[in-house]
Amino acid sequence: MKKYFYGMMLLVVAFSTQAQDKISKNAKYTFEVNGNCEQCQKRIQKAAFSVDGVKMASWSLETHEMTVIINEERCSLLEVKKAIANVGHDTKDVKANDEVYEKLHACCQYERE
User: Is the pLDDT of residue 18 over 60?
Assistant: First the structure.
């Protein structure tokens, strides 16, 4: 009976260790993304979610802050920023192509640095 009990305890410890490893692969980041309106919000969030490995993406219209949770084994923060720039929105690290920016709706064109 003791062997059965110790065997079950060993399984519980093994499974809990694996669960902790999976959690540690995810990382949360916050960074600024330029934009003006709800259309921008939808576009920015959609671009972030297009990157394989993004678990959560939320852009605040008021603060212009993007919060993402990514699986760092599947993507990097730089990949997320590049995807956002590819739809016309600048971050500090990655700037959108001028041609893509010019195609944004007039209300979505923000003052560029």
Answer: no
Q: In this structure, what are the phi and psi dihedrals at residue 38, rounded to the nearest 5 degrees?
A: -65, -30
DSSP per-residue codes, 15-68: HHHHHHHHHHTEEEEEEEB---SHHHHHHHHHHHHTSTTEEEEEE-TTT-EEEE
| Residue 101 reports pLDDT greater than 70 | yes
Percent pLDDT > 70 in the chain is 79
Give the span between the Cα atoms of 71 and 53, in whole angstroms. 5
Residue owning tokens 């902790």: 20
Within 10 A of 65 (CB to CB), how many other CB atoms are there?
A: 13
The DSSP secondary-structure symbol of 106 reads G
State the helix-helix crossing angle for 38-49 and 77-85, rounded to 10 degrees. Answer: 140
- The yes-or-no verdict on residue 100 having pLDDT over 60 is yes
